[in-house]
Amino acid sequence: MIVGIEEQSATAPILVARGLGRKYEGFMALGSFAVEVQAGEMIALVGPNGAGKTTFLTIAAGLLEPTSGKLEVNGAPAGSIDARRAVSYLPDTPVFYDDLSLGEHLEYVGALHGVADGGARAGQLLERLGLESWRDSMASEFSHGMRQKASIALALVRPFSILLADEPFDGLDPPSREVLFELLKEAREGGAAVVVSTHRGDVVGSADRCLALRDGRLAYDGPPDEAAIAEFFDAV
Amino acid sequence: MRSARRRRFVGQLDVMEVVYRVYVAAIFGAIVLSLIAGAVNDAHVSDHAVESLADHGPALLGIAVALAVFAGLRSGARGGPLAIEDAEVQYVLLAPIDRAAALRSSALRQLRIATLGGAVLGAVAGNFAFRRLPGSPVEWLACLAAFGAAVPLCTLGSALLASGRRLRPAVAGSIGALLVAWSLADVALGTKTSPATMLGVLATLPLQSGTVALGSALGLTIAAAAGLAGLLSLGGLSLEAARRRATLTAQLRFSASVQDLRAVVLLRRQLASESPRRRPWVRLRDPALGSRPIWRRGWQSILRWPAARLGRVLAVGAVAGLLAAATWSGTTPLIALAGIALLIAALDLVEPLAQEVDHPLRRDLVPVRPASLIQQHLVAPVATMSVVTLFGTLTAVALGSAATAAGVGAVMIVPTAFVLLCCAALSATNDPYAYLLVPQIGYMQTALPIVVAMIAVAAPVLAARAAADSGGSAVGAAALVEAVLLGVAAIMAAWLGQRVAGRTVVKP
């Protein structure tokens, strides 16, 4: 399911950000941010509200343009057609068409990404997320948690080299959180990089690496060492 | 999948509802057309007027076209004119497919609707033009329909081009301003060199001859090229701007559907990124109006207006003057547009009052009677609106009989500004959800300020014209009407106060 991995050398990073910055009228949301993300790496992105987590993820997804620096995915600039092929973005607020059922959404997104057997993968995801009986329902009419699960299915139904997930555990019940955990692990085991923005300690603990942001700057980049993270949050 | 979405949309439509809407629109359209037809004087205009129209008309129309292109370029620099669904951005535009191909159908649809609508409007105008001007009906219908189609084509094309090429607002604005300046130079020098003026030549083609007429073909070609260039640069659209626009446009459509004019004004400002200035044009000194905090607050709001709003409101004043001058010379229906244009300016001016209505709790916690608070909020806007109506008067003086225009305008400046502000305040204090179950009353509530504004501008001008035609005093007739209008404004101001006082949240 994962594309692009076979084309990369073992050490080539999937995502490279150098001097990345984003300013809004007089306010710096992200400043001089530099990071490299390797294939098969699971990264927890932490930080207080307004630290710049979503700004970084949306720049990496190609939805937001940086005001300084550059970000490349698989060697292609963020937002380019090659980068879009590699990046799957799971937004913090699920987005749906008002006039498509969940099944039609999955079919459409799969087709846009050239998935030939989208039906099988979609069925599997719906079953695991407990959405199989909602396939023909209108996604825009779902409850908050259901919308989140549907959005997860849409992010995972297509191939990707890197998954950028913004607060994906929000609004999920405990069993669904477990399923999402498993799905993220499977994506990592499949060779994709996974970057998850989160406030949850258990997610941070299971990551390979933790990036902590504060006031738009990288304050910590290292293993998810509990003491270091606790120290960081205490300082915040 | 798109066809499935279209099928579902069509399937959800209530056929009877659609038929009813078409029926109501047809009746309304027929009434408006017959009213305009009745109001337009069928008498042929003088040879001198025809000559003047042939000489100066293209350049004046060119200014309007240039202003439309200017607005299109500014809109494009902020991500317009396409309004793409959030989901379309998330799933289609982030997919590894050609963005230009994905956006082409919606861009073509928008161009098609706009050019067709423009052509129909142009043909309607042509239907009135041939009755007063030399030239055959076919000539006027064809050239005005072509002009009507070309204007949205070049406006939308410029917007798509600015959006696709990601022109910065300052660059897009500068290009638009250059085009407007070129058209203004055409007016001043009596030339027909600007592409916008060439489209103006197209609109007056039956009056043109020789090489000048050839300019219309060039204008039309440039408009088509702008449309084509816009379509070819679609893929460069900024997703950031598209997402922002998608959210605001959805809210704007909803607000328009419930006739919430106040929300429409606010959302339109957000769409245009029209934020108040961080530093006011003039900082009020501490003691200034210290004993009148509500007046002071009003001036502070106006002194923070961005340049674009300031320019727009003054331009509206000038356009109203132009329309009044055209009405004076015989094209009566145009005065209705002057009233609507000035009401739009007044809606911008009434901001401090509207914010009190938006935040009732904050308003009610102030130790001032709500009625008095609202009425005091009219002072700064009325004074500023008077400057707008003064601009209109100066424009009419420049275009028409100076002495009469100055006299009638001077009588109108303050009272008309007062009525227009009251109309805007009435609109801003309307509760769009009060009559959801009886929409007809809701429509009337929305229409009332518009109708009163049209009357407030039309009545003195038409009364003055009638008096002048019959050998009486134009200024005297206008003054009489303005005295009545002042009374109407006073009643409206009192009603406004009572209306807001009746909605207090904090009970004494």
Describe this structure in a few short sentences.
The complex is a heterodimer of chains A (236) and B (508). By secondary structure, chain A is α/β, with parallel strands linked by helices. Chain A has eight helices and ten strands.
Any descriptors?
heterodimer, A: 236 residues, alpha/beta, Rossmann fold, 6-stranded mixed β-sheet, 4-stranded antiparallel β-sheet, 10 strands, disordered N terminus, B: 508 residues, mainly alpha, 3 domains, 0% strand, globular
Characterize the structure shown.
The complex is a heterodimer of chains A (236) and B (508). Chain A has 236 residues and is an alpha/beta fold. Chain A has helices at residues 53-61, 81-86, 102-112, 118-128, 144-156, 174-189, 201-206, 226-235; strands at residues 15-24, 27-37, 42-46, 68-73, 76-77, 87-90, 162-166, 193-197, 209-214, 217-222. Chain A has one domain (5-93, 159-235): Rossmann fold (3-Layer(aba) Sandwich), CATH 3.40.50. Helices cover 35% and strands 25% of the residues of chain A. In chain A, β1 and β2 (27-37) form a beta hairpin. Chain B is mainly alpha-helical and 508 residues long. Chain B folds into three domains: 1-39; 50-249, no CATH class; 298-501. Chain B contains 21 helices and no strands. In chain B, α3 runs antiparallel to α7 (169-189) and α19 (402-428) packs antiparallel against α20 (439-469). Chain A binds chain B through residues 61-65, 79, 81-82, 84-85, 87, 89, 91, 95-97, 99-100, 104-105, 107-109, 111-114, 154, and chain B through 1, 4-5, 8-9, 12, 85-92, 94-98, 238-240, 243.
| Average pLDDT of chain A | 87
The span between the termini of chain A is 40 Å
| Helix proportion range of chain A | 25-40%
Helical element count of chain A? 8
Strand numbers in spatial order across the main sheet of chain A:
6-7-8-3-9-10
Radius of gyration of chain B: 24 Å
What class, by secondary structure content of chain B?
mainly alpha
Shape of chain A: globular
Count of folded domains of chain B? 3
Order of helices and strands of chain A: EEEHEEHEHHHEHEHEEH
Inertia-based shape of chain B:
globular
Task: Predict the CATH topology of chain A.
Answer: Rossmann fold
What value does the average pLDDT of chain B take? 85
